[in-house]
Structure formats: structure tokens, C-alpha cells
Amino acid sequence: MAEHRDPHPATFEGLLAEGASVPTEGWDFSWFEGRATEARPSWGYAVSMSERLGRASAVLDVQTGGGEVLDFALARVAAPKPPLLTVATEGWPPNVAKATALLRPRGVAVVVAAEDDPLPFADGAFDLVVSRHPVRPHWDEITRVLRPGGTYFAQHVGPSSVFELVEWFLGPQPDGVRSARHPDRERADAEAAGLDIVDVRAERLRMEFHDIGAVVHFLRKVVWMVPGFTVEACEQRLRELHERIRAEGPFVAHSTRHLFEARKPG
């Protein structure tokens, strides 16, 4: 076996402290450069979103996070022009502040709405609803706020995503947990809410964690992976994973993503 070279030679305690101190607001993952990697889906969601933004007049971005994906897509609208109205929702206060500061210069209003709240908009208000990695899609609400002929275009987290890491801390998960977010189930739920399915595509993507600090930051940022995660509660398993990474190289996991496009009948 080739010798593993740790790109961040530091003590276990130092790596834990570093991972625990990095701010977690927003969906900017640039801190992970050199620390962790994740392959990207082949469909290029943000670029595909920008193409649809150019053809829309009223757009809603659900659970925008820090607004980074919407900002990227709006900056790349080529033709014919950006939507006349663009609104985003977000429920976590640090992300609300970050998204507002980022999106206000583009004329985007950020509306405070918790992930389980009804969408605070009138029936048929939008011809395009987008979302990247919603905690869960509320199909009845999405259908309600879409105009007849309007489109829902999103990238969802799929079943058993990063479960190699989840089960390192939580142990084997039951089939019902592992199969949650399955695209077939979401297809059925969307159709039951009155949407016509245009496209569903799924991919399984390789991830690598190169040091334990990256693991800590990831689990603090993506809080639903290991609910209630803290360094103190998980210190022993973190130490065991740290030793494994140093001895064997990066910890490999796999994310799952699916592209979802549906239309409200006109």
C-alpha cells in the first residue's frame, strides 16, 4: 500500500477544533477544498436553472440557503432576460441574512418561511419554482403556487446519501430510513398532487473526506445527516475515524442526487 500523505498534518484535537470553529451558514463549500471532494451530477443543475430563468417571468426559489445557487444562475442568464419577479424563501436566520445580502443587489426578495410552513404566496403566483436540495418537497404547496403550465425544476438529495458516514456514527439504519427520498416515491407524490412528470434522473456520486476536521464541519453544516451531532458526544467514533483516515487514506462515501422536473397542467 502506498504511503498516505496527510495534506493537513495536525493533531486530532487541533483538527476537531478547526472543524468545530468554521461558520456553517450558507451553501458555500469552498472551505472543503483540499479537505474533501464530491463528484458533481452530470446535468449541471445551476447552469440548467439559468436557462429556465431566462424564459420565466415570475420565479420562486424554495429553501435558498445562502442564495449562492440562485445568485450563480441569475448571473448567467443569457437570453432573453432575467425574470421580472424573483423571490426566495429561507427559514434559518443566519442563512436569511446571508441570502438577503447576496440577492438584494439582483432585486430578489428573501422571505422568511420555515421548511414546513405553507408557502406565503398566492395561488398561481409563479411560472417557475426551483429548489436545490430541499429538506423535503411539499408537493401540494408547490402545485398551488404554480400557474397552469408552470414548471417545478429542482435537484433533490436521494436515498441513502452519504450513508457510509451516517452509519459510521449511527449504526445500520432500517430499510425505511435508507429508502426515504427515493425518486420513485417522490414521482408518485408529485403526481398525486397534480403535477405531470417531465424528467427524473438519478446519480450516485463519490465523496472523499481527507481529514477528520472536514468530517466535523460537514456534519455541523448538513445537520440532518447525524441528528444531534456534537464533537463531545461523538468523540470516540471521531477518533477511530481519524485513525482510519491516517492509516488508510480518505474515507469514501457516496452522495445520491436526482434531477426532478414536473409541470402543472395548463
Automatic annotation (TrEMBL):
The keyword Aminoacyl-tRNA synthetase does not apply. Keywords: Methyltransferase, Transferase. One of its GO terms (molecular function) is methyltransferase activity. It comes from the Bacteria. GO terms for biological process: methylation. Gene3D superfamilies: Vaccinia Virus protein VP39. InterPro entries: 23S_rRNA_MeTrnsfrase_RlmA (IPR052939), Methyltransf_11 (IPR013216), SAM-dependent_MTases_sf (IPR029063). Residues 60-153 form the Methyltransferase type domain. Pfam families: Methyltransf_11 (PF08241). PANTHER family: METHYLTRANSFERASE, METHYLTRANSFERASE TYPE 11 DOMAIN-CONTAINING PROTEIN. This is Class I SAM-dependent methyltransferase. It comes from Streptomyces massasporeus.
